[in-house]
Specification:
By secondary structure, this protein is α/β, with parallel strands linked by helices. It has six helices and ten strands, in the order βαβαβαβββαβαβββα. The chain has a single domain, classed as TIM Barrel, CATH 3.20.20. The relative contact order is 0.17.
Length: 210
């Protein structure tokens, strides 16, 4: 089965279109105002082209109130195959059951926080625990992932410092259901490098058996 690819931190229409053309599975938008990759609900509708309907849209929130999340989800008029909400601030997924989207739960790991939370969502994303909630290019400790492997759900995603030069090895070694990239395909926060995007997608595809 193909490894799914999520490109996060999208802010520009041309970058979204490049992802769609490359067959990226999940288009990630940061809806947390504290992020340099922040997009408002209005901007989100502007940058999503009509041909994005084959991809899933992931809206990333950090400790937002469920009512706000529901408002942003409900304000979307652009088409997408499915809308997901990614909870990136250690939230309880149960509080977001009625926001109108499926949930991606995030486990932020480091040596001081090596254990999984109680899994209460259909998808889980493993990322590095940092003070800035992702997008830093910091690699996840593979030893933590290997230790947790028996407890991971089927649809688990790997994030943290991935780029075209290391994603093939990480995919082969850790066997994630999906991979997530932001800074690894950028020239600046929220500005995607289309050559890096192409190289990243090619590396993930090259990691998969024929």
């Amino acid at each position: 089965m193909s490894v799914r690819i999520k490109v996060c931190g999208l802010r520009r229409r041309e970058d979204v279109e490049a992802c769609v053309d490359l067959g990226v599975d999940m288009l990630g938008f940061n809806c947390w105002s504290g992020s340099p990759r922040y997009v408002s609900a209005e901007t989100l509708n502007d940058v999503l082209p009509a041909n994005a309907e084959g991809a899933e849209v992931v809206l990333v929130f950090v400790r937002a109130e469920p009512d706000l999340v529901k408002h942003v989800v409900g304000s979307m008029h652009a088409r997408a195959a499915r809308v997901w909400v990614q909870l990136h601030g250690d939230e309880d997924p149960a509080r977001y059951a009625d926001v109108g989207a499926s949930i991606i739960q995030v486990a932020r790991l480091d040596a001081d926080h090596p254990d999984l939370p109680s899994i209460a969502a259909p998808r889980l994303l493993l990322d590095v625990r940092t003070i800035t909630f992702g997008g830093t290019g910091t690699r996840i400790d593979e030893r933590l992932v290997e230790r947790l492997r028996p407890s991971l759900p089927t649809e688990w995603m790997l994030a943290g410092g991935l780029n075209a030069s290391n994603v093939k090895d990480a995919t082969v070694r850790m066997q994630p259901w999906g991979v997530d990239v932001a800074s690894g395909v950028e020239t600046a926060p929220g500005v995607k490098d289309h050559e890096k995007l192409k190289a990243f997608v090619a590396a993930v595809r090259d990691a998969q058996p024929n």
